[in-house]
Amino acid sequence: MARRHSLRVRVAVAFAGLGALLSLLLAVGLWLAAHDVSQRLMDQTLKAELEDYMARRGRNPASLPPATTSLRGYVAVAGTANTELPAAIARLLPGQHEIELDATPYRVAVADQGGDRYYILFNEVRQRRREQGFFNYLVAGAALMTLLSATIGYWLAGRVIAPVTLLAHQVRDAGPESPPQLEGLEQPAARRDEIGDLAHAFDSYLRRLGAFIERERAFAADASHELRTPLAVIQGAAEVLAGDPALAPAQAQRVARIERAAQEMSELIAALLLLAREQAPSTDEECDAEAVTRACIERYLPQAERRGTRLVLAQSTPLRLPVAPALFAIVVANLVRNAIAHTENGDVRISLDSRQLRVDDNGVGIRAEELGKVFERYYRGSGNRDSHGAGIGLSLVKRICDRCGWRIDLAPGETCGTRASLEFNTTS
Asked: Of 3.90.1150.10, 3.30.565.10, 3.50.70.10, 3.30.30.10, which CATH number belongs to 280-423?
C-alpha cells in the first residue's frame, strides 16, 4: 500500500500546484503578448524606415540607404547588376520576412517602387536578448510564485486542520473512564461549523461506546458471579464425595474428573475475564511457571495414559513470569492438550527454561497448508479425527500471548509430529 502524506502536506502541494499553474499561464500569456508587441514594433519601424528611404530617394536618386548598427538598407535597381545585394535577400518577395545572415537574425521588409525593389533589414540580436531576459524574469517569477504558494498553503493548512488535529489528540488521549472534552461541543446547532459537527459525531459515538463498555462490564461481572457460584458448589460437592471411603475406585476416578473439570472451568473463566479488560495484564501479578507447568502435566496424565501416550517433563527451570497464573495455565493446558490429542502411542515432551516453553510430540503432525490457520478462531485441523474441540483453544493461546508480549509458533518436528514454541518477552 502506498504511503499517504499528511493532510497538511497535501493541501500545501495543492496550493503549490495551483500557484504553479496560474504562474505558468500568466507567464505564457505575458510572453506571447510581449513577443507580439515586439514583432509589431519591428514591423512598424521597418515600414516607416522603408517609406522614408523611398521618399528620400525619390527626391534624390543619389541618396544612400540606411546603414546603422540596427538597420541596413539595399536597393535593387531594375536593369542593373546588384553585386552588393546578398543572394538570400535578392530572392525575397515584397512583404515581411525572417532570415539569417552570417548567423545573425534579421527582420526584413521588402517593397517595390518605380520598378526598383527596396530592402530594409532590422538586426534582431538586441531584441532577442531583451526577450530572453524578460523570459528569465518570467521563469523566476513563476518559481517564486510556486514557492510562495506552497509556503502560504502549508501555513493555511496548519491553521485549517489545527482543530482537527486537536480533536484527534483529545480522542486519542482519552480513556474509557475519562471521555474527552471535545472542542466545538459548546457551539449551538445553528452556528455549528464542520469541526463542531465532527466533534458532536465523535461525542455521540463515544457516548454509545461508553454505554456499550459499561454493559459489557456489567455482563462480565454478573457472568463471573453467576458461573463461579455453581462451580464452587460443584467443587465442594466433589471434595465431599472424594472423601467418602465407600466409593469404588471407578467412582473415585469419575469424582476426580468432575473436580478437575470444575477447576479448569474456574481457571478458564478467570482467564477470559482478564482478557476482556481493555488494559494490559497487570505486571504486579506473578506466577511460578515451573509449578504451573508441573500441575498441568499432572492434570493431563490420565488423558495421556488412555491414549497410550507418555507425558514427559524433559527439562524444567525455576521461572517466575509477570502474568496472572490463570493466563499461563490456560496457555500450557491448551498446548499440552493439543499435543496429546494429536499423539497416540507416542511421546509428548515439555521443556521449560528462562527463554521459552517448548512442547514436542511425535504424533500425526499438522499439514503445511494448515500451519498458518491453526490460530484462527473456530478453525479445526483435518489431521486428527479424535479431537472434539471447538477450535478456540489455540486462538485463545494466541490472544493471551499477544496480550503478554510473547511469541507463539507451531512448526513441524525434527522427524515427525509438531513442535510448539512459546518465547517469553522477559528482561531478566
From this structure: 3.30.565.10
